[in-house]
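Worked problem 6 (solution included).
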Amino acid sequence: MNDLVQTFAVYALPIVFAITLHEAAHAYAAKYFGDLTAYSQGRMSLNPIKHIDPIGTLLIPIALYAMGSPFLFGYAKPVPVEFGRLRNPKRDMAWVALAGPAANLVMGFLWMALAVILAGFQGREEFFPRMAQAGIITNLVIFAFNLIPVPPLDGGRILTGMLPNSLAYKFARIEPYGFFIVLGLLFLNMLHYWMVPMMSIAGSLLAILISPLTFLLR
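Solution. The predicted structure is:
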């Protein structure tokens, strides 16, 4: 029980930031490309309460952690996007979808920078270095998970935007079953074949980008 409380304390802030900025990035991109739906509903906000879903953000991740799942995932309240209002619906849908994972990649970089700076000071305090590592892992997980090429996940919408119109229409029809497809992959222990390589690639990219700071603080 004590371990669970400590884990919650370390991961709470990184998860809230990761989810909030992910959804706000979708809303900002939608507004940029011409759809004001999310903006008018107050979803282009850094207020976590606007984005947190009690089941998807809290209950599902806690349940998966309790079951010992190798990967935790959940979801926030989806940002409402009227794709028909975008200036170029098919193309812009992909950019709106990409904005969320891109925000997580940026946050992963910032948490990694914090981890490097804290390591440079070599203090005895463990909580904040652990939180920084949690921030890196959380954002890499959310980045990789949301890029799974199954609609309605961001990766599915990006792929839909890239496919020719005839294939895009057929592919988009699996969206009502997307959540069940992902759950099936999770419980068949197949999700790691996507998650591990994507997290490794993204983590390596961040390590390269942060290497000048690492060098300076040696």
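Discussion: The mean pLDDT is 88.
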